[in-house]
Amino acid sequence: MKIKSVSLDIVCGPTSVLPDTGKPEVAFAGKSNVGKSSMINAVINRKALARTSSQPGKTQTINFYHVNNDFYLVDLPGYGYAAASQKAREAWGKMIERYLHTSPNLRSVFLLLDIRHAPSRNDRMMYDWIVDNGYQPIIIATKLDKIKRSQVQKQVKILRETLDMPKDAKIIPFSALTKQGKDEIHDAIAAAVRDQEADEEAPDASPEKNAADQKEL
After folding, report:
1. Considering its fold, how many domains does the chain have in total?
2. What is the pLDDT of residues 74-97, one digit of tens each?
3. Residue 205 belongs to some domain of the structure
4. Structural domain harbouring 166
5. Is 214 among the domain residues?
6. For the segment 25-82, what is each residue's pLDDT rounded down to a tens digit?
7. Any residues with CB less than 8 A from the CB of 27 and at least 6 apart, and which?
8. Is 216 within a domain?
């Protein structure tokens, strides 16, 4: 997938009306400080469109990035930021839940986890939350450059077993530093967008009706 254009088109806060973009959407979720902004910048080939910060919990809105005028990459607020007030955490949680539950255009959800650690309680809750809303999340295991190559498969196995993932569920090890895993993420996004296009182009009539229509012509 070649990135030709990207723009931050829509920003939604806790009280905002969520948009119906009319285009395929792929969403990215992850706890604070997991490297989500760095990953998004790497995937869209931009240095700082998604703002990175040494302060966790920076993303407090749902940000819709319009990519190639074809689809939206949706950056969800980081969760699990302990320093945020209980009220703020609840507002972010409700905002994420509302988006996952109501978006008519959401095609795939990517969940970012730190490859160095077993998923936390918050990670497991978010994973189950996404599954309960009807999506099998694709896991992006970030900070790949922080571990040795010999440790990768062991850590991937820990992620899969801790989350009790199906065998065919996808885990993509990723490094924002080396960009390893970027092509796999591009492929997964492109597949989700293609699925939406195929659904829109598929005939909604039965074979019998299609045959009758062709006969009339």
Report:
1. 1
2. 999 888 665 566 676 677 778 888
3. no
4. 6-197
5. no
6. 999 999 988 999 999 999 999 876 766 544 544 557 899 999 999 999 999 988 866 5
7. 74, 75, 76, 99, 100, 103, 106, 108, 109, 110
8. no
